[in-house]
Amino acid sequence: MTNEEPRASAPEIVAGLHGTLSARARLRAVAILVVGLAGAVFLAALWWTEPGPLPVLTRVAFGLMMVFCLIWAVYGIWLLRSRVPLFATDRVVAAWIGLAASALTSSLLVVMTVQRGSGAWAVIVVATALVAVAAVLVVRAHRHRAALLRREHALTGGDPELLE
Amino acid sequence: MSDELLVVRAQLGNRAALEDLVTRWQRPVWLYVRRMLDAERADDVAQEAWIAVVRALPRLREPDRFAPWLFTIVRRATLNRMRRQYADRHDLVGDFESDVDRPHDGIRDPVDGLMDRAEMVARLAGIPVLEREVLVLHYLEDLSVEDCAQVCGVPAGTVKSRLNRARLMLRAHVEEEGERT
User: Fold this and answer.
1) pTM greater than 0.90 (yes/no)
2) Which domain holds residue B149?
3) In a shared domain, residues B83 and B8
4) Mutate to test the interface with B, among A9, A17, A18 (most CBs of B within 10 A)
5) Which of A33, B16, B131, B162 is the most exposed place for a label (fewest CB within 10 A)?
């Protein structure tokens, strides 16, 4: 046992991590979360602002579609929590994607609700909350990255050999 | 370049830093796994452990405590494999989870000075899993008793007891061999 060496070399171990580290996997996870969440909010607002009572089957269809979107959103969260590493720079990009998607969804909701003329204020509040949460995530992602950059600077101490 | 700097850069998304970190720790990780499992499974488990490490790295809050955090994950991967391997052997893995701290008998380091690292490594196979694990972490990976406690998820006192038992076992092995020769 004393003189044994690992059969896999370090480059082979790194190569084995490519799937986990692929940009495509990260983008896919973020897209699943964003689209699932935006879809669920959009459907909920659509349902809420219906001018009259809906037939039972239509309500069931709305409910099922919302559950479907929420399942995708939860799957996206699970991917980002335990399967796909989101590093600080990725978090910043993901947060901006989230903010753009929230702004787009919110704008569509507001325009649609104003045209329908029912429940406009409630939808505006929901849309504003959606954008606000996305904006908070952007700020947090930037702060996290800035803290890491400060720590990196403190550790290198301005040493040119350690600076990239 | 320190581990902490590599970790911080890897957390920022620097791929080269992450690869340097893996390269630096690849052998210690493999050695730990190898001491706990047979050669066939060691490579697989080491790779699984690295995937888990990379997935969890963005959430590491204390980059300066990378080593104990790393071995906590590696230990979990090893334990999962052992659980599967010895699913019907409660004597090995059951004790791993529900270890009861046995009283410290006050005997200090009886094998210190009796053997070097190489000798210890050669004798590890004969030591039970719990004791072998702390020997590997403390003597071969140079983790402190407190870090071993963090990795194993037990109090520092338990680690000291295990180390003590492990030393006694090693001494017994040495004496047994001495009597034979």
Assistant:
1) no
2) 99-180
3) yes
4) A17
5) B16
